[in-house]
Structure formats: C-alpha cells, structure tokens
Amino acid sequence: MRRLGVIGHPIGHSISPVFQGAALGARNLDAEYTPYDIAPEDLEDFLSLVRAPEWLGINVTIPHKQAVVPLVDELSEEAREIGAVNTIVNRSGALVGYNTDARGFLRALDGIGFDPVGRDAVVLGTGGAARAIVYALTRSRAGRVVVAGRRADRAAALVVDMAHLSGGTELRAVGWGSDELEEEVRRASLLVNATPIGMRGGGAEGESPVNASWLQPRLTVFDTVYNPPETPLLGEAARVEARAVSGLEMLVCQGAESFELWTGLDAPIEVMRLAAREALEG
Ligand code: NAP
Predict the structure, then answer these.
(1) Is the CB of 254 under 6 A from ligand 1?
(2) Residue 281: which pLDDT band, with cuts at 50, 70 and 90?
(3) What CATH number should be reported for the domain holding residue 29?
(4) Nearest to 63 by CA among 85, 33, 81, 90
(5) Domain count of the chain?
(6) Domain that includes residue 206, residue range
(7) How far is the CA of 224 from the centre of ligand 1 (A)?
(8) What is the rounded average pLDDT for all residues in the chain?
(9) CA of 124 to the centre of ligand 1 (A)
(10) Catalytic residue (one of 3, 65, 107, 144)
C-alpha cells in the first residue's frame, strides 16, 4: 500500500482526504490518503518519514506552506516564485516541492473558457493564494493585474516580487476600498477574491469584499473561498448576470494537479468534484 496525505495544524477542516480518497478509488490505486495534524516543531521530522519508498508524497496546508520551502530538496519554478509549497512529491527519497494553486486556478478558469491573455484582472488580498494567482496571471500574459490589500505595503511588495516575471503584463497596487479600486473593478474582465471574506466560520462570514454596485455583466467573478461554495460575492455576481466561479472548483483543480504529479495518471475530476461538494454539503 502506497501512502499519501495532507499535513496542517489544525487539519480537521480539510476535505482533501475525501476527494483524494475518491480519486484513488476511482483509479483503483492501492494507496491511502490520510490527514495528519503536525505541529510546527514536528515538521522536519515528519518530512524525513515521507522520504521512505511507500510514500508518493503529501499535500501541505496552513500553517506549513512557507515553512516547508527550505526543508525540501528541490522546488518547482512556481513554488520558488510564489514562495510556498502545497504539494510534495517523493522522487526516490528526494522531496520536490510544487505549488498547484496557480495551475489549479488557471485550470478552473479554463473550465469556463476564460483565457487570461491580454485581459485585465483585479486580485483582492496579498497572502499565499493571492501570490499564486498573481503569479498565474502574470505568467499567462494577462494585460493588467491590479492588487488590492488592506495592508498597502504587502500589496506593493507583491507587485515588486512578480514584476520580473512579466512579459508585458502591467502590475499595479491600489488601496483597499479606494476610488482607484472601484475604477479598476469597473473596467476589469476578471475579479478574484483571495481573502477569507465570506468564509464560513471566519471573521467576515456573510460579507462581500466589494460593493455590489461595482459589478457588471461583462465581469467574471472568481472567489477562492470554497466554504460555502456559493459566497455572498458570487451571489451578487449572479444577480448582475456576471459569470461566477467558486473556490470549490479551484480546490478540486489544485487537488487534481497534485494527484497527477503523484500518480502520473489523469485525475478523475468529476469524481473529485462530486465528493468535494458532498463533503461540504454534509
Ligand atoms: P493568507 O495568506 O492568510 O492571506 C489572507 C489575505 O486576506 C491577506 O492579504 C489578508 O490581509 C487578507 N484579509 C484577511 N481578512 C481580511 C479582511 N477582513 N479584509 C481585508 N483583507 C483581509 O491566506 P491565503 O492562504 O492566501 O487564503 C486566502 C483565502 O483563499 C482563504 O479563504 C482560503 O480558504 C482561500 N484559498 C482557497 C484555495 C482554493 O483552492 N480554493 C486555495 C488557497 C486558498 P492581512 O495581510 O492584512 O491580514
């Protein structure tokens, strides 16, 4: 039996074991995927276990995504540029760190036929998810990417960090709640919420990160929040007949990318989507 899992602290909220387990079953693989609650002081010891031959790899979630960066043997370009690892692959005892949030985001966009090339986007937030998304959009040659964070210094730093990747993408930071942000949202083709605003059980449950009057039908609204799958922001997008993408789709797509890295097989995405939705609804 081969081993896979997810490490975090705490880990009880993760639905990855449900949809990764369903994927392993659908592909008839003799492997199990287990959640592990690992405290920061135990991280290094745990990773040394993952080098054993029975391990295919692991997912990494909060609060370890940055902490594992110096502990792996090799990093993919995405993981290095984003500065965070959410997937580790055991290649004959060497641990290789990847970040599948960027590819998962692009795969979810591709699923609705949205091509970022030359398009204008606004990204709300400056944390790990925002870094992955700004990286993905810049690498995909978006026309313009505007970052808004409640901490102006972090928004400015994110723009500086990604500037060298730009093959023509204009990167800009604007103030949270500013008139400039309103103007940018009104002219954008894509709005991404990469903050926890709207998340069940979070400090801003039931809230939306922007004023509903800023949304228009030509906009595609992408919420990284996946619980609930239909957030207040997505509800407002639906009311103006804008296209809406749930964070649940990004979660499933980043999981599919991880599955493909570990197994070399196509992920059974429909099985994973169904299992994830059932886990949240249950
Ligand atoms: P993070 O690193 O903690 O960053 C959170 C960002 O949101 C920070 O910029 C933070 O600002 C900002 N923020 C938090 N509360 C805010 C508020 N009330 N008003 C304005 N800004 C606020 O977290 P993360 O890992 O990037 O995750 C962000 C969200 O993305 C979470 O909801 C997470 O579940 C989701 N996510 C989804 C997926 C997926 O596959 N669907 C993958 C990764 C993440 P400060 O710096 O000022 O605190």
Answers:
(1) yes
(2) confident
(3) 3.40.50.10860
(4) 85
(5) 2
(6) 102-246
(7) 9
(8) 97
(9) 9
(10) 65
Strand duo 170-175 + 94-98: pairing:
unpaired
- For 235-244, what is each residue's pLDDT tens digit? 999 999 999 9
What one-letter code names the amino acid at 210?
V
The alpha carbon of 38 and the centre of ligand 1 are apart by a number of angstroms equal to: 21
Over the stretch 182-218, which tens digit does the pLDDT of each residue have? 999 999 999 999 999 999 999 999 999 999 999 999 9
Q: Do 121 and 241 have their domain in common? A: yes
pLDDT at res. 253: 98
Find tokens 């975090």 and name the residue. 8
Is 65 a catalytic site residue?
Answer: yes
Q: Which residue has the tokens 């997937």?
A: 87
The amino acid at 66: Q
Write down how long the chain is. 282
Stretch 79-104: mean pLDDT, rounded? 98
Query: What secondary structure letter does DSSP report for 69?
Result: G
Q: What is the pLDDT of residue 181?
A: 98
Query: Whole-model pTM?
Result: 0.97
Q: Residue 140 belongs to a domain with what CATH number?
A: 3.40.50.720
Q: Is the CB of 255 under 6 A from ligand 1?
A: no
In this structure, the answer to whether residues 90 and 113 fall within a common structural domain is no
